[in-house]
């Protein structure tokens, strides 16, 4: 078994089986494994193998994976697909180490926001504790230690001098990753923006757009916040729908999306639509 795969026994506990397969056997259940991000094919394949491993020990249960930041499917997309399959319950299992307390907070807030904006019937949602809390973590770490290979360090030599291209893109989008924005779901907004950047080829169409995470951008009470340059426009209370409009109207058409824009006035401002991020 490859070393990154969890031992099957981690998913074969009697307690989990009882939760997912009630005695009457009438409920349609799903397990959703979530990681933070993936930038290449290899981590996607790793998550698929993890998904297959869980599915092999949970007969009759749908098992899927998703990413909370960059990577497809995103958590929102995976949940939407499961809604279409009319499942009765979804068990969300975060495969994140280490897991900051803010991760669970924004996850619950994002789930609440998505549910409130989607008219389809929603199943029962349950979120597992962090993977480090498993009683089998010690055994897993010991298994990983057994796979360790000695590092062969070559003799030092001067690195080759390489050049860099100066980016031609004229637009920059900064997504705030400060404390308030993280609690309001900035990770999900960042992931959606990056996925849309890849899907729509934003780097090479229009003026060209580059994206980056930022430390605090300032207006914390307007979280989650992003800023678009060269205009320097602030957007607050940003949702996935807001990101879509900012891409279509601002990045590609040059028009500020006033529904989510906040301009410097010299006075404190509050969110105009706080229900969007509650």
UniProtKB/TrEMBL annotation:
Query: Mind telling me what this protein is named?
Result: NAD(P)H-dependent oxidoreductase subunit E
Q: Which Pfam families match?
A: 2Fe-2S_thioredx (PF01257), CbiX (PF01903)
The signal sequence is none
Key words of the record: Lyase, Metal-binding
UniProt cross-references to InterPro entries, sorted A to Z: CbiX-like, Staph/Strept_toxin_CS, Thioredoxin-like_sf
Keyword Metal-binding attributed? yes
